[in-house]
Amino acid sequence: MKSSKIKFPNKETLSKSHFKIKKSFGQNYLFDLNLTNKIVKNSMPLCSTIIEIGPGPGSLTRAILENGAKKIYVIEKDRESIKFLQPLQKLYPNKLEVINDDALTIPIYNLGNFPRQIIANLPYNISTKLLIILLEKINNYSKITLMFQKEVANRLVARPGQKSYGRLSILTNLLTRSRILFDISNSSFYPKPKVNSSVVELTPREKPLYKFNFKNIENITNFIFSKRRKMLRTIFKDYGGDKMLIQLKISPTKRPENLTLEEICKLEQKLFS
Fold first, then answer.
1. Sign of CA pseudo-dihedral 60, 45, 147, 24
2. Which of 93, 171, 228, 246 has the most beta carbons within 10 angstroms of its beta carbon?
3. 10-39 confidence digits (pLDDT tens)
């Protein structure tokens, strides 16, 4: 059976069908096969286990399979969307496993065998929550290629001193080497979202840049970046203020957006030791 003989869903057939786009699921689908193929080509070579989250009608799933995936697990919360994946299951028997569940609640890191790779156009409404979950278990993956809103992607790759630098930048760059591969216009999606997207590659580091506890870094970055316009001496006035910061060789007049990864880890070890 050849894929050219199978009718796959597209923007026109989806809009004419009785399928209802669910805003609560953050559904914005990418049907352009040139773009889905570009995402997969930028993710090569493929690992023995591929995981996709939020496949929807399966355009990216199709591209992954057509590029030689041995085994792909797709996690789809919307039961109604699963019917669109049935032609691919018939075309690629035993290669596509569909899991009707919430990606935020299942142990993704246990799916299949290592090496695992994630390739996904994440639903916008869960992208940052899901990223945190993936980062906490980052050693279970060999490579991650994800599509985010462009604003979120910029935060992932931001460096100290840049406007987008914050909690996500710190967690991401302590644990991975991150880079934006390319941007995708909002006009490429159905329904059309208000913002453009970017495809981001995250390659896990062999070991974190510095010693730290993940939950503690989450807590301290949440705390300091909720006061990002204030100087550190003000933020930490109840924790030793200038004296503590000078002891750690951190300028008390710095603001959170100028802290290096090393300085963040110094603060984490001091405050949670």
1. positive
2. 171
3. 666 666 666 676 666 667 889 899 999 999
